[in-house]
Amino acid sequence: MSIDKAYIDYAWLYSLNTKRIWFVTRAKSNIDYVIVGQHPVSVRGIISDERISLRGHHTRNKYPQDLRLIRFYDDERQKTLVFLTNNFRLAATTIAQIYKSRWQIELFFKWIKQNLKIKSFLGTSKNAVLTQIWVAMCYYLFLTYIKYQTKYSYSLLQLSRIIRETLFDRKSLIDILTLQPEHLSAVRTETLQGALF
User: For 26, left (φ over 0), alpha (ψ -120 to 50), or beta?
Assistant: First the structure.
């Protein structure tokens, strides 16, 4: 499990540890600890790999066992990252990659929110969430395909709006896509007037 450092709660982390769930999180800069052991460092990017014990009275009570502290230099971001984990078996580079993957997952969900327009999930089960994501992705790919095939010059958001506004109109989608966005309202009015008679 990968956790954001803003949510470090040592009692909660210890409850994960007692359930044999291992975690990776960013260590806070003011962490108070003592080094009780070290792992050999031989891989590029790993600055240090230490076994630590929390030293603060409150934090020591909340997490009484040892932790692993890994300092890693990220070439892409040109930044030193410090990871805290209860996993002593995996290689330090693997721990760094796990945290990096977490960011890829977060970026994916950000992309979903921005592009697939999923404001909230209709269900809470795994199947309901996956179904809604798949439907939204299919719709997004469908729009991208239409945009590519018709050489539509406006954004996918504009295309989505056009389809939503003219979904039940008896007009050819190709004809509608050749219109300028400002002329779309005239087509909509014309269709509505035809439906009244």
Answer: beta
Token pair of 98, please?
A: 């796990």
Between CA 162 and CA 139, with CA 135 as vertex, the angle to 5 degrees is: 30
| CA nearest neighbour of 94 among 24, 17, 177 | 24
Q: Give the whole-angstrom CA distance, residue 132 versus residue 3.
A: 25
Alpha-carbon distance of 114 to 100, in angstroms, equals 21
What confidence tens digit (pLDDT) does each residue in 45-89 have? 899 999 999 998 888 999 999 999 999 998 888 899 999 999 999
Pairwise CA distance, residues 2 & 50, whole Å: 19
Task: Please state the φ and ψ torsions of residue 44, each to the nearest 5 degrees.
Answer: -60, 135
Domain segments of the chain as ranges: 2-111, 117-196
Query: Cα(162)–Cα(50) distance, rounded to whole angstroms?
Result: 58
Contact (Cβ atoms closer than 8 angstroms) between residue 77 and residue 70: no
- For domain 2-111, give the fold: Transposase Inhibitor Protein From Tn5; Chain A, domain 1 (3.90.350)
Provide the greatest CA pair distance for the chain: 85
